[in-house]
Amino acid sequence: MIMLDKAFTGSGRYWGWIAFLLVLIAVGFACYLRQLEYGLGITGLSRDVSWGIYIAQFTFFVGVAASAVMVVLPYYLHNVQQFARITILGELLAVAAVTMCMLFIFVDMGQPARVLNVLLYPTPHSMMFWDMVSLSGYLVLNLVIAYVMLAAEQKGVPAPHWIKPVIILSIPWAVSIHTVTAFLYNGLPGRPLWFTAILAPRFLASAFASGPALLILLCLALRRLTTFDAGHEAIRRLGVIVAYAMTVNVFFLFLELFTALYSGMPDHAEPFAYLFFGIDGKNGLVPVMWLSVVLALAALLALLVPRFRRNERVLALASLAVFVSLWLEKGMGLIVAGFVPSPLRTVTSYAPTAPEWGIVGGVWAVGALMLTLFYKITVSVREAD
Amino acid sequence: MKLTRKDFLRVLAGSAVAVGAGTLVHAVGSANDKESAGSTVGKKRWGMAVDLRKCREEKGCDLCSRACHRTHNVPQIPDRAHEVKWLWNERHDKVFPFQQNDYTRQALGETVPILCNHCTNPACVRVCPTQATWKRTDGVVMMDYHRCIGCRYCMAACPYGSRSFNYVDPRPYLGTPNPDFPTRTTGVVEKCNFCEERLADGKQPACVEACPRNAMVFGDLNDGNSPIRQLLSGRYAVQRQPELGCGPSIFYLV
Amino acid sequence: MGDRPLIYAGLFLFVALVTLPVWQGIAAQSSTVGPELKAPAHKKQCVAPRAYMREAHMELLMAWRDGKVRKHERHYTAADGTVYNVSLTGTCLTQCHGSKEKFCDRCHEYAGVSAPNCWGCHTSPPAEPGGVAAVAAGGMR
Ligand code: SF4
Ligand code: SF4
To answer: How far is CA A280 from the centre of its chain?
Structure first.
């Protein structure tokens, strides 16, 4: 780990940001200790809504992780040279996101001390087992790739040949992590909202919109804060990817709505009714979902009109809108509403509690910290060239 | 249509792949004990029939539920969100959704005792990543509280709402615990165990014993001469949402 | 050379921290004599030899646990042929060792092992005056 030292020199602003993240992590950790002692009763979860923001955020960040493929694939398979400088940013983003996913699963467990039971008693008929396999494999792949590429860059030598097949392997692997994550949900009887064959494609579409959107924001931030510039062309191309993926995502959502609502089958229609209108006055998710819809449509408008999209300021706003919209829809609504109404036809509200937000914030901070350090190292290596 | 040898071989190979894939998917999808996957001859399948007519006559009776919860140290937690239940009464229209018409709803307003269905093809077992819940060869769907990691995947999978999670320490909500049965700890999922500890001693489940009207009949569904099979062949009985494919072993005589 | 006081201070701190348990022990006036565990009056032989139980009781308990919950093995035959009910509360404690506090805890505390979490679920038999609880059969767990 020769490059680690690069993370320990920086401006006051750099250290201030690091300190801020460390505070968030400490707060999250304190909340987690409380949860460990008291139990998950500290959260807003219930017998009816037994998964909440932890699992929803896990799902969302699997998407962010998988989206690295959207820069890796064009560069390595289609030789899109503009992405040469940012593939590594995508891979490092994947590493941070997968780590967040694992943390979200971990904080959701009732008996975290027994986590190794998943390995001690491997259970191939459980999709959670496969999810663990694919996520850890993806983590290793991206770590190896990013490290090898960066080390080669630092030494000014071409990357070793064996890394190419590893990179190629990471492409289908990225698709697999989000497919298996969709399988977690859509193979369950009695959860009609998730019981849809296009859940995996939907997940992939939203992943390929939210991930590159985040990457655009990160590239713009890097340009402003450091000497690193991804280049206008790379950012423009990322914008095109976000535009297509977001269009497909909204189209898929429309398909779901049509199927559920036009058929009028109550157990398919009810979760959507709950999401967009509320049932029996229980409407906690209604503003969340409408905000998501408005942001999605506004972003689409900005992204689909080339004149708007080429303006980087508009693109930045649109990317932010895409990210937040999908974060609300997938990182909250989709998972929670799967439990509404419950199998016993009960509508139970769920809202994260303060300690729950504290823990979520801690996990985000871990992700942001990893990303900051990774990008700091990358930028320093490039500056040295 | 002329089928050349090459075409024929291609079709053959295609079907072999299809069969192989089918077997694989089936193997991944089926989570039953290896032994129970085969024939049922000589194997037990514990099941229960509940005579709803009798329950209806004893409107509001919950002796079975209380006996169960006392026997198994099930806590009485007032907060609805954190409730733990093994066997309880639920409104008829919630237990059998979409099975009444607009005009019978009123008449069927009574409650129905519900519990884990000890399904023949349990979704909970299929999804559990640690085999902390599994199906015994006698049909009982078991929980190993020592192994459960509290991921609650089984709760998402069970389409009957049979499972509860210990969101808080259950002990303060127990009153005087039954010393012959353990309690549970924070962070594990629990549910009805079909009184497997009593079956091992040759006893009937506690709920069956507690019912003064003998509304619950327990027995081996694989034994054509058992009282439960006699009962089921004589009267119209329904399972909860059989269309979901879980194959419940609890039957309701209507 | 100006670092010398710092180095010594650091070394001192290190040694102090490493030997902290010793000082704590002295402060708490703990003796090196282990707790006396009373053998049950009416039983001479545990389910396994004493030396084995002392070393490996957790292994036996885990084997009992998995056997009973997962493999339907509800009885355990000891080397001398005696058959026992597989039950932590019902057999180990109720029939011989009395209560968790009197038996398990005393040794665990002395040896400084953090007790396993058996007692999060399993209950210690209600304390009965006169030491060991009656050998009432039928206790299932
Ligand atoms: S009722 Fe639910 S918990 Fe019980 S066996 Fe069926 S799927 Fe599992
Ligand atoms: S909560 Fe426990 S029993 Fe349920 S799926 Fe997870 S490990 Fe298995």
So the answer is: 32
Is A216 in contact with A67 (CB distance < 8 Å)? no
Ligand 2 site residues (CB inside 6 A) read B 127-128, 130, 132-133, 148-154, 189
Q: Spell out the alpha helix ranges (H) of chain C.
A: 4-18, 20-27, 50-71, 106-111
Q: Give me the residue spans of the domains in chain A.
A: 2-384
Q: For residue A65, which amino acid is it?
A: A
> What residues of B are in contact with residue C115 (Cβ under 8 Å)?
none
Residue of B nearest to A111 (CA): B149
Q: Look at phi and psi of residue A196 and say left if phi exceeds 0, alpha if psi is from -120 to 50, else beta.
A: beta
Selection from B14, B147, B165, B13 nearest residue B75 by Cα:
B165
* pTM of the entire predicted model: 0.89
**B119/A contact by beta carbon, under 8 A:** no
Q: What does the pLDDT look like over C105-127, one tens digit per residue?
A: 888 888 888 777 899 999 888 75
Give yes or no for a contact between A344 and B94, defined as CB atoms under 8 angstroms apart. Answer: yes
Domain spanning A2-384, CATH architecture: Up-down Bundle (1.20)
As assigned by CATH, the class of the B41-253 domain is alpha beta
Is B190 within 8 Å of B84 (Cβ atoms)? yes
**Tens digit of each residue's pLDDT (9 = 90 or more) over A50-83:** 999 999 999 999 999 999 999 999 999 999 999 9
Please provide residue C136's backbone torsions phi and psi, each rounded to the nearest 5 degrees: -65, 120
What single string gives the DSSP state of each residue in C38-53?
A: PPPTT-S--SS-HHHH
Q: HSE on the CB side for B183, CA within 13 Å?
A: 25
